[in-house]
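Changelog note: in this version the structure field was regenerated for every chain. One regenerated record is shown below for reference.
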Amino acid sequence: MQGEQSNITKWIDALKIAIIENNIDNAMELIDNLPFDKDSIFNGKYDGNVELLEYLNIAKELISQVLDILITQQEDARNQIYKIKQARKFLTN
């Protein structure tokens, strides 16, 4: 778990940086490449591993923050589209 732990902490740090920098492309790439062995988690290999559970909770929170950023960006895009439509409507009248 030691080498795996190092990879997980590097991944968490990289995702935190992507969030701080508002770098959604990098954040999405990191999310697509989770450092967790999903098969082992679902097969119970790490049952009782408190440290891994803590990492998974941190990852969940960080991914939630990325989703919040995406939702905000989506709302901003909608507002911009609305403003463009209003301006176009105004200019065509």
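Spot check on this record: Helices lie at 2-20, 24-32, 38-42, 50-92. Residues 50-92 form the longest helix (43 residues).
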